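Mods, move this if it's the wrong board.
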Amino acid sequence: MVNFNFISPTKIVFGKNTEKHVGEEIAEYSKKILLLYGSGNIKRMGLYDKVTDSLKKAHVEFVELSGVKPNPRLSLVNEGIKICRENEIDFILAVGGGSVIDTAKAIGVGVPYEGDVWDFYMGYKTPHKSLPVGVVLTIAAAGSEASKSSVITNENGWYKRGLNIDLIRPKFAIMNPELTYTVSPYQTAAGAADIMAHVMERYFTAIKNVDLTDRLCEGTLKAVISNVPIALEQPDNYNARAEIMWAGTIAHNDLLETGRIGDWASHQIEHELSAIYDIAHGAGLAIIFPAWMEYVYKTNINRFAQFALRVWDIEYCFDFPEKTAAAGINKLKNFFIDLGLPTTLKDAGIPDDRIEEMASKCKMTNGDTVGTFVKLTRNDVLNILKNAL
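Not the wrong board. Structure tokens:
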């Protein structure tokens, strides 16, 4: 186990009807906010009225910005920065899923910065100030409601890049599992893949003697695996939705990375896939993660065999642990297939004519390589994309 600092300051307000208290939570910070959301779905489901009624009761003035898309765009971030400056707004409320929250975080660091907010996402500058952000969560997936991460797509070249800094963790997250009842089966499944990928990025580590967090990771994965099929069959099953929603938060608030070093190669590779083809991030991860596993598992067969045994209950073959490891990867892939997710580029209708471009664009986080479990060169990334065809 390695040394670590663990910071998780986000206040979690979890349970039924908690969205009605958003005004009370915001009143501690501001009286004039940006209300940020995606499409009109929050209006159709009645959430918009509940949120705005609560804001009015708390005497919180709000200016609206809607239109956040999946794989959120830099152009809307810049629009939000302009609105906040013009209206002297000092707090942002994100009502939605990861794309809305990531956009809110980007706007937050962009408002006090005199330069281009994209500087932060390219690593040219580090933000030191941000408007605070609050969340009303509607999709269990990205875990952005309590994470230090924000991922934005720049339409100029279609680059997808992330900012990771504790400064941008939300002040609070209101999490009512009932708000996920209307999430489509496909988005529920893609969200589950996203949650599982966040756990697996941390689980596949080269650090030894991390059994506690191994067990926490395995338990989180098993909770998702057992509850997602229930949620798909019974969309309004509160207990299943609650388990999935809380798993999404735990998967990405860094608790599961304490004492260990995560990999994150699969995320960096997938970012290029969803930036160019606008595929749901979780669906892209369902394609890339098994392809990454198949490419690297022989470098640490014991860890993959442990994954198969503890997560998928596959009998351990002591004579041939490689067989156990391969069975675990196959079990993961079949689980994604059962959820209705693609596990190859072909399944997603994505051609093979831009895989070299995706490999060349992939952000190398260690100089000339990406990932820590196995350090991958650009040629390795290209081979993984070829494996995913």
